[in-house]
C-alpha cells in the first residue's frame, strides 16, 4: 500500500492509499498516468511526483492549459505541484497551469 494518485481524462485527480493505481479508477475513467503523493507541511502544499508502474507519468499536456483540474476537497488551501525528473529537477505548479476546483 502506498499513497498514489491518477489523472483522468476528465481532469480529476483521484488519490488513495492503494496497492495498485488501477484501484483508483472508476468504470468511466480513462487514466492519463499517475504517481505518488505526499504533503509538504512546511511549504503547505500537496506534492505529486513519480510515475505509475502501469500508466506512466501523468500526461499533463493532454489537459489544455486553463482547463479545470478537480482535486479532493481535503486538499483545499494547499499549493499543488508535480515534481518530475531525477531528484525533482522539474516542478510544475498546477495552480498556475489549471483552474483548480474541489470535489
Helix content: under 10%
Beta-strand fraction estimate: 35-45%
In spatial order, strands of the major sheet run 2-1-3-4-6-7
What distance separates the N and C termini?
A: 24 Å
How would you state the average pLDDT, rounded?
Answer: 94
> How big is the Rg?
12 Å
Order of helices and strands: EEEEEEEHE
Q: Strand count, sense and closure of the main sheet?
A: 6 strands, mixed
The coarse overall form would be globular
How many strand units? 8
Q: How many H/I helical runs? A: 1
Low-confidence stretches: none
| Helix/sheet category | mainly beta
Protein described:
- A six-stranded mixed beta sheet has the order 2-1-3-4-6-7. Strands 5-8 form a two-stranded parallel ribbon.
- By secondary structure, the chain is mainly beta.
- The chain is globular, with a radius of gyration of 12 Å.
- The chain has one helix spanning 94-97, and strands spanning 2-8, 13-18, 31-40, 45-49, 68-71, 79-84, 90-93, 99-102.
- The model has no long low-confidence stretch (mean pLDDT 94).
- The longest helix is centred in the last third of the chain and has 4 residues, at 94-97.
- It contains one helix and eight strands, in the order βββββββαβ.
- The protein starts with a strand and ends with a strand.
